[in-house]
Write a structure and sequence with these properties.
Two copies of one chain form a homodimer.
Chain A lengths: L9 E5 L8 H11 L5 E5 L5 E2 L2 E2 L13 E4 L6 H11 L3 E4 L10 H14 L2 E3 L5 E4 L4 E4 L7 E8 L2 H13 L4 E6 L8 H7 L8 E6 L7 H14 L2 E5 L4 H10 L7 H11 L2 E3 L2 H13 L8 E5 L2 H14 L8 H8 L12 E2 L6 H13 L5 E7 L6 H14 L5 E7 L2 H12 L4 E2 L2 H24 L1
Parallel strand pairs in A: 1-2, 1-5, 5-6, 6-7, 10-11, 10-12, 12-13, 13-14, 15-16, 15-17, 17-18, 18-19
Antiparallel strand pairs in A: 3-4, 8-9, 8-11
Chain lengths: ~450, ~450
Amino acid sequence: MLKALLNPKSIAVVGASRTPGKIGYVVLRNIIAYGYKGKIYPVNPHADEVLGLKAYPSVSSIPDEVDVVVVAVPAQEVPKVIEDAGKKGAKVAVVITSGFSEVGNVELENQIVETARKYGLRILGPNIFGYAYTPSSINATFGPLEIERGNIALISQSGALGIALMGWTIMNEIGLSALFSVGNMADIDVAELSELLIDDPYTKVIAIYLEGIKPGRGKDFIEKMTKVTLEKPVVVIKAGRSTRGMKAVASHTGSLAGSDQLYEAAFKQAGIIRAYTVEEMFDIARAFSQQPLPRGENTVIITNGGGVGVLATDAAEFSGVKLVEPSPQLIDAFRQTMPWFGSPKNPVDLTGQATVDNYIKAIKVAVESPEIDNIVILYCRTAVLDPRDLAKAIVEFYEENKVDKTTVVSFVGGQDTYEAMKYLNRHNIPAYPSPERAVNALAKMIWYKKFKEKKKSKQ
Amino acid sequence: MLKALLNPKSIAVVGASRTPGKIGYVVLRNIIAYGYKGKIYPVNPHADEVLGLKAYPSVSSIPDEVDVVVVAVPAQEVPKVIEDAGKKGAKVAVVITSGFSEVGNVELENQIVETARKYGLRILGPNIFGYAYTPSSINATFGPLEIERGNIALISQSGALGIALMGWTIMNEIGLSALFSVGNMADIDVAELSELLIDDPYTKVIAIYLEGIKPGRGKDFIEKMTKVTLEKPVVVIKAGRSTRGMKAVASHTGSLAGSDQLYEAAFKQAGIIRAYTVEEMFDIARAFSQQPLPRGENTVIITNGGGVGVLATDAAEFSGVKLVEPSPQLIDAFRQTMPWFGSPKNPVDLTGQATVDNYIKAIKVAVESPEIDNIVILYCRTAVLDPRDLAKAIVEFYEENKVDKTTVVSFVGGQDTYEAMKYLNRHNIPAYPSPERAVNALAKMIWYKKFKEKKKSKQ
């Protein structure tokens, strides 16, 4: 049933409005404008037509099957709509409407869930901003229209943050496969959505903003998420990890937050990667979405600046990334790629005189060496090497040679450096503004690779 | 003598070149183009004129006093230049040239220091990219030209990273008062430069990229830095804190890195704030440069999104920021500023319906309440409130009311949110892309305020 969310034949929007700015207007407009190819049915008893589409007075009056029903009517009208959609045989109701358990209205929330169960109708929400699934060109949210297409599925328990992050991912060109606002999780929860994505070929990694799981659902959460992480990496930022944050969570989504140690243990058991800031969550998710899993843990740092090389070395040690001790042969090979005063050990320092040619030669050595599994490429803006030239050369080399060693990049500098990193990111090479962030993302990939191998060997 | 670096009457550039791209060309061009008002003397025995200025064959042939001599000639010629500059009575030689102790040429380095000492000439470098002091419109570096003017002094022991950070600060509109590349620190070191800045009215905070202090200089470092931090905050990123990073440092600048515990202890004793990434260093420095020191530790969070409120609450607890428990009166006052379903406790949640008016009213309550010392303003992009309007209103309120409570901001969203944060930053309200980074910067300010009070009370 839930699968209908990803590939619905039709979507009805109950509360579709002709007034710009209204939620029932924005959601319908986004569904149309983002290019959904299935059938779209506005439901509005006071209109014959909304946004150029024939409108219907109710879901049951639609002369066709309805898979997904988006609900954006006042709370007190929702039970009627759910009953109607249930009778019609709809599969999932996406209840955007707020005014349920989050403001103490638990009874109304229970009522819609019970009604839906009668008909086998599933509920996403209530109190959400909608959902999106870009492979089917569905943007059924009241957030920004132009969601960047990609391989990260984002699930948010916070509506405001989720919408804000939509803008953020667009600005930073972070591509999403799916976006789910889960709100009060009256029925469908985070674990079930993650499970849904196991078989989704367009999702490579799942990123979750979590405030808390529902009381009594801990075991189910661990079971489901363990299944998920065997197939796909999951990165979670858990809000409410401090004592006071927990109280804030309780007053925000009403989740029973539970002690952070419990969550920490559950995440560990389930193989979930924990991020501590929103930026970190996307740093890690981006690496997974763009790069193959590490084949092993032996990592080399290639740089043109000693300083960033040292910072990356520090980050590697503290995040558990193993820097390879190159063999004499490998040291010799690296030495051929650099000026005489460079350093062929790890970090491989091509010096501030490094050219595109030095970089590509050193990268080639790393790619061809069986001693090396992963590559960290660092660059500091110098007068002799335009970062945009370097970015282009790296992309060309990786694409021509179909390089499959896990690679992360950090370029430090000004506007042109920023543009170079955008170029790398657009070509699936994750680039970060600081060496520490690049190394941290790689560390989490290596950790996940090991976790997965260990789990699979036990099966 | 060192003060001459900040307000020299004249600067000579030895090795001034007419060939674009050469270091001796770029440095001279930067000095001229950045608007230095003192006298500029190119020194080049093979030219009568360089970049439109009369050139001299040697420093001693300049018919005028020379305060600062920038040296950009090959290493083997440097001793002669130092001798000549010393005889001439120059005060500081800024030796850009590399090829000294960093490549094992210790003797040559000792030689120039000994020569300089004979004449009371001080040496910055060698092996540096130059220096800048924006209040005197001096950009004597071979890095980018348009250094943003401001109140942060940046000292970098890494040349490549320092130059790259020049571009980075320009792109991020981070204003600098001074910028020193210290390189091999043959004579002038980080501690002495920091001391020089104690009385500089244009420097509010000192940010340092440090790889290591010289053997035997530990005690001097602690003594000098303790004096500095009594007057001005110092933020240090210490590279080479891992075992392997230490080795990388040794091969990079040749500093005897020493165990990280020693540095940790030294920093603590001297009241130095430690940052762990380049981004964090600037996050903290920016807050100090733009905001008054906290008057106390009681902090309130004002938000329109529960999620970011929780993330900030978590960050506050883990970084030691005390969130105030508002009195019943204060709770009542906050309640007046928000929709009925908002939360007037701390975090003060104005809800996703919040308008500019709600925000300004809540901020006014916080500013006027004696219970509150510091304010964290958070915002998630919503359809009802354009972040640029909010940014403008905040700036207007702060400027009109001369608000002097320490304030940090985080707006989460897309392009317009990013623009709004740029606007805030330009008006001295430090804004960050994530709530955790805003809270962390405030935490370090509160820590420093307490440190300073404790130290002063002991004097």
